[in-house]
Backbone:
């Protein structure tokens, strides 16, 4: 019999500091200390928690968000940089795997990024949300398929998606094919109301069942003072409440511990990793229950970059000036250069 493997995890639900990146980072490091002190070996934080989720964009029209958008740029996280170094040092000292949501600044663009730090402090994964949702498209750029990747950590194979990426079944399936054992889901929290919390619960429990993995989900929280500050219109403040469902779900789709739906706190739970095989024995979506000859996924893992550099050919590639001294390599190059002309000739002949 294999040795029983238990992994203790923590899911953090706290409020950001809406004034500064440094203030929120201080809260992150303090929560890491607290969770590690309770024995957690993996700790998850909410979506774009550093410096804060752009709640303003949900309750203000775009024409009025310029100042707050610029402030978000000024406070956003550069990866790698001082913020990632601080989190890395804490992860290494505490021996904890950390999954952190940040607003990443890459020159003139912001991205919704998820960072996975291993227990030795190394940054194993930086991925970007592939499609920002609704109001978020005014704030963030798009990620690519290269980031949809499960990574090996000190606690097992970890995958991550942000918020409504969980409504993209192909993105979730891409992680399933990589056999994630712990899936970290991140949502902003404090949005839309109780119906959002219900939808989050349905979504993460379904993913746990379908993928046969544990799901650790973290949502954010806003205080009453923060809600009032974000929207002077009392009617819109309801849109900045509720929507919290910090939870830890087993591969059988059940809550390992009761979820946290209001206030601040850290959920701590022990994951019995044997439950993964117990679930997959009955239903393995990418194994014995799959039908790849009928249905399969095309996952483009190439990074999306705005330029593809090609080196200019050297003079040597054109061969020598004398045909009599051409070697085999030169003749092969000449044949390759002439190939397009030959194809054109054949096509013209076929047309006639």
Residues:
């Amino acid at each position: 019999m294999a040795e029983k493997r238990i992994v203790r995890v923590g899911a953090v639900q706290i409020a950001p500091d809406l004034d500064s990146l440094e203030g929120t980072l201080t809260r992150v490091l303090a929560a890491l200390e607290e969770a590690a002190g309770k024995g957690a070996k993996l700790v998850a934080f909410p979506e774009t928690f550093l410096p804060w989720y752009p709640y303003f964009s949900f309750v203000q029209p775009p024409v009025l968000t310029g100042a707050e958008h610029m402030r978000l740029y000024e406070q956003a996280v550069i990866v790698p940089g001082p913020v990632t170094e601080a989190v890395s040092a804490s992860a290494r000292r505490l021996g904890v795997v950390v999954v952190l949501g940040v607003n990443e600044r890459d020159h003139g663009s912001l991205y919704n990024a998820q960072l996975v730090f291993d227990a030795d402090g190394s940054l194993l994964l930086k991925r970007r949300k592939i499609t920002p949702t609704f109001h978020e498209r005014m704030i963030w750029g798009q990620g690519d398929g290269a980031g949809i990747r499960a990574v090996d950590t000190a606690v097992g194979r970890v995958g991550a998606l942000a918020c409504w990426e969980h409504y993209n079944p192909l993105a979730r399936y891409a992680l399933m094919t990589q056999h994630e054992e712990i899936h970290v889901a991140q949502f902003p929290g404090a949005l839309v109301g109780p119906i959002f919390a219900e939808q989050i619960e349905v979504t993460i429990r379904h993913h746990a069942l379908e993928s046969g993995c544990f799901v650790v989900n973290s949502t954010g929280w806003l205080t009453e003072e923060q809600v009032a500050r974000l929207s002077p219109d009392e009617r819109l403040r309801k849109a900045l409440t509720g929507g919290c469902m910090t939870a830890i779900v087993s591969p059988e789709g059940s809550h390992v511990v009761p979820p946290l739906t209001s206030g601040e706190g850290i959920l701590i739970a022990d994951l019995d990793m044997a439950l993964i095989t117990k679930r997959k024995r009955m239903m393995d979506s990418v194994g014995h229950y799959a039908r790849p000859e009928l249905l399969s996924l095309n996952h483009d893992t190439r990074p999306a970059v705005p330029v593809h550099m090609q080196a200019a050919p050297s003079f040597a590639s054109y061969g020598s000036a004398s045909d009599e001294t051409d070697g085999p390599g030169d003749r092969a190059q000449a044949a390759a250069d002439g190939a397009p002309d030959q194809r054109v000739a054949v096509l013209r002949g076929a047309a006639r």
Residues 328-351 form the longest helix (24 residues).
